[in-house]
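Feature request, filed as a ticket because there's no other form

It would be nice if the structure record came with a short human-readable summary line next to the tokens. Right now we just get the raw output. Example of a typical job, pasted below so the devs can see what we mean:
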Amino acid sequence: MDGSIFRLMGLNLKTGGDNRVAQDKSFSKFLTVWSGQFLSMVGSGLTGFALGVYAFERTQMATSTALVILLSFVPSLLLRPFGGVLADRFDRRLMMIIGDLGSAIGLCSFWRSCCSENQSCGTSMSAWR
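Raw output as currently delivered:
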């Protein structure tokens, strides 16, 4: 096999020393970005779940819990088509950093509003004070 199928898939089968080092650096950058994005997505999922638990503790209603969990995923569903277009036009790493910073700012502002509403920050958030 001459490797033409692998070239079509974007893989280079040459085993030169310089090419191997460049691929290792590229792969380590990819793993760094991938790991960060993985942790961010796990954190976002846990945040949505924790907000649902918090809503249930406050209201004792399954409807409010389901609504909070649903609304925690709506922004990602609405913004993904636009994010895909922006990721094609701009640097993907920069777009992921901006998205994660926006998520962190939104979470901090939500937590801040909960604390200003209730000075004790609720029973489940009092450990963070």
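Something like this underneath would help us a lot:
Residues 17-59 form the longest helix (43 residues).
The mean pLDDT is 75.
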